[in-house]
Write a structure and sequence with these properties.
The complex is a heterodimer. By secondary structure, chain A is mainly α. Chain A has six helices and no strands. The chains are: A mainly alpha, B alpha/beta.
Chain lengths: 186, 264
């Protein structure tokens, strides 16, 4: 009788310990993701400020450039609105829009050096933009590492029995950040 | 009996050295040099260039720890690293954080990339990475201007990358002294004049990091010391190692970078 009680008690203690461990790990990792995602948005916001400085360095804009600038401006407003309402999908959509358009803008300016990139102001703005892009990339890599840790935690045994029903996170795609931007002459 | 004990103790010492040596380097990240402020394994820089960087780098660190300076911006360090080969071989942010450049995140890492053509080195690129706190006082925009003004100073011949580096180094120090620590002047030209006087002199050998420098920071060493004492040995038996490892090593002070760098 005592043996049976002991076995049952031990079983429940082990299950409770596993549950507590799985749940606490889930909460800690979930909070870590929220914090890292906040860092990504903070880095992105800073980067968009740098974009403004770089756009200011483009003194005259033709129709193509103006089209890019208008798209970026509209997407930046969408980004700010989405941040205010914490709409994650809209945030990601506007981020993708801004970054892909900006890369096109930089490439266009680089392809037309006589018109746009002869000033020192432009070169320094590009350095600033590159540096802030690297900060974003760093923040995204940290976020993705946290996402991997979280997903591994909730999907591996025995944690999956206790917290496996929670949704997993998708890592950030980095296609607009890891591109080597055009360089400029010294 | 005494001889036996001495043999055991010495076997322990040899074992500790062996086990310490067997430990892999931490994830193969480049370790800082013994002078810390300049890391030039390939000897791309002139002897006087390395010593100049070291002397002025250490002077900045000492000056920036003055009690009159607010604590949160004390401890600036500017480190120069040279690399021969592909720039993708090394990860600057990883190195910055591993070396802990600067106290209070007040560090800067400058990497010069070279390629080799026969016996000579060809300068390729410069990478500039700014620590988290330092970025409040020096933006990439300003750093790029410093590179334009000092590294690409048209009065310095293109081939003389030593002088260009020293010019940039003093340009960066000038920015820090004047804008971070509110000094009233920094005579860049007089420092350059002083450098040109010694540029091709051999000051003295650049000290190299040895195996013994790191032994006291290795847990295997202290386990063996503990076992030795347990077996009746004396800590005095390890005194020779203290002589081998003597010589001051300069180091970083925990500075972090969030990846704020650009290459040009």
């Amino acid at each position: 009788m005592y043996i049976l009680v002991g076995v049952i008690l031990t079983f429940f203690i082990v299950v409770a310990a596993l549950w507590i461990s799985a749940y606490n790990g889930y909460v800690i990792k979930d909070n870590d993701i929220s914090q890292k995602r906040g860092n990504v948005y903070a880095a992105l916001s800073t980067r968009y400020e740098k974009m403004g400085a770089m756009i200011d360095a483009i003194e005259s804009a033709n129709t193509t450039v103006q089209g890019y600038l208008d798209t970026i401006m509209a997407a930046r407003i969408s980004f700010a609105d989405a941040l205010a309402t914490n709409d994650l999908e809209a945030i990601d959509a506007s981020v993708t829009e801004i970054n892909s358009t900006f890369i096109n803008l930089v490439s266009y300016v680089e392809d037309n050096p006589s018109s746009y990139n002869t000033t020192g102001l432009y070169a320094s703005a590009l350095a600033e933009f590159n540096a802030s892009t690297n900060v974003v990339l760093n923040a995204i890599l940290a976020y993705n590492q946290s996402v991997t840790n979280y997903n591994n935690h909730i999907k591996t045994f025995p944690n999956n029995m206790f917290v496996g029903s929670n949704a997993s996170f998708e890592p950030y795609a980095v296609e607009n950040y890891n591109k080597t931007l055009p360089t400029f002459s010294g | 009996m005494l001889e036996k004990r001495i043999i055991i103790v010495w076997m322990m010492i040899v074992l500790s050295i062996f086990l310490t040596g067997c430990q892999p380097a931490s994830d193969s990240i480049l370790e800082p040099s013994k002078l810390f402020y300049v890391h030039d394994n390939s000897h791309t820089l002139l002897n006087a260039t390395s010593w100049s960087v070291f002397n002025y780098g250490e002077a900045l660190y000492i000056d920036s720890n003055n009690d009159a300076i607010p604590e949160f911006i004390q401890g600036s360090q500017v480190v120069v690293l040279t690399h021969v080969g592909d720039s993708s071989d090394i990860e600057s942010t990883e190195i910055f954080n591993h070396w802990g450049i600067g106290k209070n995140n007040m560090g800067i890492l400058i990497i010069l990339y070279f390629s080799k053509d026969g016996d000579s080195y060809i300068f390729d690129n410069i990478l500039f990475e700014i620590g988290q706190q330092m970025s409040e006082y020096l933006s990439a925009f300003e750093a790029n201007n410093l590179i334009t003004d000092y590294f690409y100073d048209p009065s310095i011949p293109t081939y003389d990358y030593d002088a260009r580096l020293i010019s940039l180094y003093h340009g960066v120090l000038s920015h820090i002294y004047l804008n971070v620590y509110n000094y009233t002047s920094y005579n860049h030209q007089s420092y350059m004049d002083g450098y040109y006087e010694i540029q091709y002199d051999y000051i003295r050998a650049i000290p190299k990091a040895t195996f013994y420098d790191d032994i006291f920071g290795n847990y295997w060493f202290w386990i063996i010391v503990g076992l030795t004492i347990l077996f009746g040995g004396s800590i005095l038996q390890f005194i020779p190692l203290f002589f081998f490892s003597s010589g001051k090593s300069f180091r970083g002070h925990g500075g972090k970078s969030i990846g704020y760098w650009f290459k040009r």
